[in-house]
Write a structure and sequence with these properties.
The protein is mainly α. The chain has a single domain, classed as Glycosyltransferase, CATH 1.50.10.20. The protein contains six helices and no strands. The radius of gyration is 15 Å and the shape is elongated. The mean pLDDT is 90.
Length: 125
């Protein structure tokens, strides 16, 4: 189930492309169904799983869906998680992560997440 759901969420951006090309509502409905299932599965107790890189890749699909349907709820839960990471998992050097040794991949993933969230904020103005 988990592997299937991960694959489907990552395909969300491709499904959005099909919708943009064909304008067939069934593609958008499928992308929204997948995105909803992904959010319900991965977003627990106000947090996403601790795999920042996975979360960054998954956000790409949610961002593409947001571009099409303008449903801010696809982005809001990512913003909530990013805020929680910044407020609770950041050290004195502004490095994020729950482990004492900070990894470059985690830093890069969070930079991507923050950048993507900022891109969405710009479209709201």
């Amino acid at each position: 189930m988990l592997r299937s759901l991960i694959t489907l969420v990552l395909c969300c951006s491709q499904i959005c492309c099909f919708f943009e090309i064909t304008k067939e509502r069934t593609y958008l409905d499928e992308a929204e169904r997948i995105a909803k299932a992904g959010r319900e599965y991965f977003f627990k107790n106000g947090r996403l799983p601790n795999g920042y890189w996975f979360n960054a890749v998954m956000l790409r699909g949610y961002q593409e869906l947001y571009k099409v349907d303008k449903n801010k709820s696809w982005i809001d839960f990512y913003q909530q998680d990013a805020d929680a990471i910044w407020n609770t998992e950041r050290d004195a050097n502004n490095m994020v992560g729950t482990k004492p040794a900070k990894s470059l991949i985690d830093q890069a993933a969070m930079i991507e997440i923050y950048a993507r969230l900022q891109q969405v904020k710009k479209t709201l103005k």
